[in-house]
Input
Amino acid sequence: MKRLPWWLRDLIYGAIFIAVLIGASYGMDAIHIAGIAYYQRIVVLMGINIILAVSLNIINGHAGQFSLGHAGFMAIGAYFAAFLTYFYFAPYVNRFPAGTEQWVLQNALLLVAVLLGGALAALAGYLVGLPSLRLRGDYLAIVTLGFGEIIRVVILNIDKIGAARGFTGIPNWANFFWVYLFCGITILISWRLVQSSVGRAFLAIREDEIAAEAMGVDATKYKVKAFIIGSFMAGVSGGLFAHFMMYLNPDMFRFLRSFEVVVMVVLGGLGSISGSIVAAIILTYLPEGLRLAKPFLHIEKDPRMVIYSIMLIVLMLTRPQGLLGRRELWQVLKRRKDAPKEEPDAAARN
Amino acid sequence: MPLLETKNVTIRFGGLTAVSDFNLTIEPHELVGLIGPNGAGKTTIFNMLTGVYRPNEGAIFVNGKATRNCKPYDITALGVARTFQNIRLFKELTVLDNVKIGGHIHYKYSSASAVLHTNRFHEAESIAEADAIELLRIFNLDKRAQFYARNLPYGDQRRLEIARAMAVRPKLLLLDEPAAGLNTGETMELMEKIHEIRDRFNLTILLIEHNMELVMGICERIVVLNFGKTIAHGTPEQVRSNPVVIEAYLGEPVEA
Output
């Protein structure tokens, strides 16, 4: 069978995906049940967390560079996109009367703001990626951790974007459609990269850097590449977050935020894209869903964060390799014939 | 022009001179052995040849090009591939992917091509797949292409390392104790394999080995190292009967 030209095939898949998304967002808008807005909100936040987890998975899971600065990249994207929209794009859009023209302009400018936010985050990723030429493991983790805090403190001191008061008045331009569009793009990029020579280079560096270099892989180049791609997507998710929440505060991007994303990646299984997605969905819903547990427990205080922590501990004790290990969801479910063979005793032997 | 030439290569780690004044010239298609007691500096020489260490003094030329400022991946691009003494496979990847990574420098396309799945991507990937399967077949590993590398038996892991190095399409292959841990039968098989690939791919091979049967059996020329110094150099027969070599391995003769 002759293959369709690559651009035509991707265009068709892209169109189908966008059509489904539009259908889903109309569907969601059409539901009018009391309290549904709360769940719709959770679904959108899930999408944002999926972008974060999948992008961090490229850096941590595929390239094996332990980064704790993902909230920093997200903050850069969020603040820069919000800055552009608030000071330049929104005043411009508001000059137009409400209607199709304004709607098109608004969405186009959202796209521009979010992509530029991602680009600035990618630049930061490049700069943070540079020390990763020399640092490994724990040391790199500390550098990226410090980086995230620096970003937060810098933002905290810029009065124009709200400093400690927070950045208010960001227009509500992002919605289900945009978040899941970028979600799809992030997953696609991540998946296709890992199937390519670029992804194989990432994995080789993770497995054994010396051997990778002996095979002609420029480890530095690929590590920086992983940082750039991962931080770009984190920046994009930040931009979407800003235009969805309509409010930003430096406290949203504390170390704890980075840590939440790391937990998603590790819990899903380092290196497993579908694992990151599943973990992002579960960990976004869990703190909310556990509110339902309170009436059954007959205690005054809300125990949901305690239960949440206990569940994490139990999960990590029972499945230290993460929910899916290094495999993808369908490999675990189907155990396809061509899936990598596993001997249960092999891990113990090495 | 010699394929590999080292001139007075010396490296010191702190106060220890690991290798001093190492001179070696290898012509294309030669099969040279590097032997010596433990700690003689053999693997250190490999690490200098492949750019992992930088010599303090002296110069290394690959195909006439000085490699002083080359990173390991630059030297790989010059056509030098190696295996490791303590197997360094990509354990959590499949056997097939291990070999594909060996061919990394030959399957070039941009990240954008990879994401968009352009024709360039499909062409390069199908060549990568075909090349890798071909190599696995030569090393009788094709049936285990989908195994994780860490799940292979030890002998297969050794052979996979050579297959991965061959995917670089090297002119010069450096084998660091390829027979370590193999039994006699496997060692004999490996000897034949080394001969086979040398003729088939017109390779030049430099190998470190403790198994004298293998070294004496296949090498045309042998360099003997002790405490970082070259103590003997010649054909297997010359080396075997050299009193200095015997002393290095067995100690001084006891006076009656």
Remarks:
- The first helix of chain A runs from residue 6 to 30.
- Chain A has a mean pLDDT of 90.
- The CA atoms of residues 130 and 285 of chain A lie 36 Å apart.
